[in-house]
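Write out the 3D structure for:
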Amino acid sequence: MNLSIGMQAAHRVLVAAGLTGLLLIAAAGYAQAQGGSSNAPGATTPAQAKATEGALQQLAAPTGQSFSSPTQDSFKGSLVTGKATDGVLDLSLNEAISRGLRQNLGLILQSSAQQNAKGQQLEQLQALLPTVTGDASIEVEQVNLAAFGLKFPGLKPIVGPFQVVDFRAYLTQSLINVPALENYIASKHSFNAAKLTAADARDMVVLTVGNAYLLCIADAARISAVNASLATSKASLDQATALHDAGISPRLDVLRAQVDFQNEQQNLISTINQLAKDKLALARTIGLPLDQAIRLTDSEPYAALDNLDPAAAFAQALKNRKDLAAASEQVAAAHAQKTAAFADQFPTAKFSVDFGDIGETAGHSHSTYSATGKIEAPILQIAKTRGEEGVADSQYQQARDRLSDQIQQVNADIRNSILDIQSAAKLVDAAKSNLDLANEELSEAQQRYHAGVADNLPVSQAQSSVEQANDQYISALYQHNAAKLSLARALGVAETNLKDYLGGK
């Protein structure tokens, strides 16, 4: 249906003007074919219509999961704010997590991905909204009719120069466009998935920062244990030296005690270095300057976590895990894209209108307009339609399969965390008992050596046993707290209930 009233009016004017007007139009058409920019008065040019429809088709393109999500390594980085102070910064676990939730790179990247998804949603929405454009043109021409072989007695071959001024606005609106509607619905689900993924990223920040903090706590405990062993080794060395000077014990006892003492010094250097490196890793996750000195103010002692029911925990996770909800939204988005691919064979209806003012000058012009309604329907595009449906159906099935696997992975994570908690709890008890026995063995060996009943070889061996038992005990404590932290993450409550799990709810 074409209601181009402006073109009809222009046609009547040309007929009344006679041959001269007809020649002018022919010359203008030639000039346009040679690259001119003349616009037919009161009508939308083919180039403008093509550009408008192309823009709508581009906006109606299916929305994909094109926004870049942060990788696991992204949560180990951050954006640094401020400068290091001269003093030592006291840092609690809550403060470290709060800083991480503001500065962690993974969370920032996920927020950017959410903004990207929102922009894609707005792009898809535009395909359903009116599109208004405007232009203004001034054209000056001079035509040589003789160059076209047009020669008439009494008619000058040179026509012009003349000018045409045109100010015009164009409105295009899709009336029926099922693929564009389904693509917009898909973009809404994709945006919801991005929001939920950003919320889930907060739990990932808590998991990353919490684990980095627990590692520093374990390092600090090892330094205390090594210092205690160093003091014991120093006492044993002094005792061996005194007994050797008194002629009671051989030089071998002094050498053995010196080796033990120097080994403990080396362990202390290595442990202090490891704490410094783990503090750097912690600072990287929360956006602290790397040259900022920090002191950990929290310690997480052993606290049992009882009454762990895997089935109940899994049911809780299904309600709390934001990544599962995000995956469900991605399934809905893929389903909408599948519908859009099927609907690509449906007719679409569009309405376009232009209104403007055209004439020789702005003061000598007249308004013109045209209105067009168009219905388009694909007649023969079987391969394209089936191909799009096949691709969309494959993506839909993949999204469903990923969601199903992700649900089972959450179930596995919960059960693994519970097993780790129970195992670590037993390791803590066993390591604590072993440490007590090793300390008792060391005390007995020291007393026997002091009484001259034996040399200091049993003392050296007992000191090694105490050191190993201490390390096992500290490792078991870290494993227990890390497992509880992982369980809180698996349940989707790391941000809200972290202290309950580390403290032994």
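Residues 1-67 have pLDDT under 50 and may be disordered.
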